[in-house]
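R.M. (postdoc): so does anyone remember the format we settled on? I'll just put the structure tokens first.
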């Protein structure tokens, strides 16, 4: 299936108390003005924010480094990150090239995008997901 390259645009935290248990991750399609909003947990938002600002303490559970160790891989083994949707729930997979072949491993979105940032690899979203869920911004 065709994939669309995206980049992290922003991480938004709600201002209203009743919505404070989730944050919104905004992914921007590189080739257009389409944006894909994804609700993520506050833990994933914190992890990703700290990773992107280089404030993530080493050795924390479920960090990108811990994930790589568990997957028995290195940053240079990462090919790309894919964002998937199943029953309106988003997830991420990290595609590695290890032992002479590709292997994909499901991963929390915050960790996957942190790895994409560290390894400078593409973040891909299926074209059908973008067609169905992305928002187009028109400037007048």
């Amino acid at each position: 299936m065709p994939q669309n390259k995206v980049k992290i645009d922003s991480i938004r935290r709600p201002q209203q108390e009743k919505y404070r248990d989730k944050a919104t991750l905004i992914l921007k399609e590189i080739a257009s003005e389409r944006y894909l909003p994804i609700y993520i947990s506050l833990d994933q938002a914190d992890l990703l924010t700290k990773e992107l600002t280089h404030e993530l303490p080493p050795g924390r559970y479920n960090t990108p480094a811990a994930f790589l160790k568990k997957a028995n891989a290195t940053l240079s083994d990462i090919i790309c990150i894919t964002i998937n949707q199943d029953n309106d729930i988003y997830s991420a997979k990290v595609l590695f090239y290890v032992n002479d072949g590709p292997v994909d491993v499901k991963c929390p979105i915050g960790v996957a995008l942190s790895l994409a940032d560290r390894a400078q690899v593409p973040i891909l979203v299926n074209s059908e997901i973008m067609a169905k869920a992305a928002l187009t911004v028109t400037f007048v």
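R.M.: ...and that's the designed sequence above, right after the tokens. Also worth knowing: Helices lie at 42-52, 64-71, 109-119, 127-133. The chain has four helices and eight strands.
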